[in-house]
Amino acid sequence: MSTQQPTPSPPSTPAPAARAAVDFFFDPACPFAWIASRWMLEVERHRDIDLRFRPMSLYLHNEGNDLPDWYRELVDKSIGPVRVAVAAAAAHGDGIMRDLYTAFGTRIHQHKEDDFDAVVAASLAELGLPPELAEAAHSTAYDEEVARGHDAGKDREQGAYVGTPTIHVDGTVWFGPVLNAIPRGADAAELFDSFRVLANHQGFFELKRARSGGLSYD
């Protein structure tokens, strides 16, 4: 009988994961959506994902809610940039959402501009879009389309939003992750890998801890 040990087979190479489909629902006024969106753009640099930006509305999400005065003021004026984003997409295609959201969010969150009409005007000018699109901010002409886009982001089983940011990953609907800073590089990719594992686990639905620290947009 031979005592020669069999040569171990080399480990098999794992099959590459299918391209992740990610729909990111944003309201330009939400700081947590802004941070999470910048994280997703960082992930896009390191992972093969199909990332689409789609509008939702804090105004519609909070209809009928009793809110503190400061937040009610923000929610009431938040509908303006959302209407403009929808109007711009209707005229120039959904692909404009990404750049327009970046233009809005940079001004609102990083530059701390609170005059949303000025934000809209400057953002349209930056992207070379017709200034007339700003009229949509104070018009109801696109409100049916805003509502359709908003409803597309809802959890289908609950028929509502849990909160914002809302991200659809591989067809599953998630509130969060809620981040107070933007992960970068390998950290961003590693967080997404972990998030995707949880998102695709049929029995998983919530993970939460107490918030601490301020927000950073760096």
Textual characterization of the structure:
The protein is of the alpha+beta class and 218 residues long. Helices cover 44% and strands 10% of the residues. Helix 3 runs antiparallel to helix 4 (96-110).
Task: Give the helices and strands, then pairings.
Layout: E1 20-26, H1 31-46, E2 49-55, H2 58-61, H3 69-92, H4 96-110, H5 116-127, H6 143-152, E3 166-169, E4 172-175, H7 185-199
Parallel strand pairs: 1-2
Antiparallel strand pairs: 1-3, 3-4
* Spatial separation of the terminal alpha carbons: 67 Å
The spatial strand order of the largest sheet comes to 2-1-3-4
Radius of gyration: 21 Å
Number of separate strands: 4
Roughly what percent helix?
A: 40-55%
The overall pLDDT average reads 88
Beta-strand fraction estimate: 5-15%
**SSE pattern:** EHEHHHHHEEH
Descriptors:
single chain, 218 residues, alpha+beta, 4-stranded mixed sheet, 44% helix
In short:
The protein is of the alpha+beta class. 44% of the residues lie in helices and 10% in strands. The chain has seven helices and four strands; from the N terminus they run E-H-E-H-H-H-H-H-E-E-H.
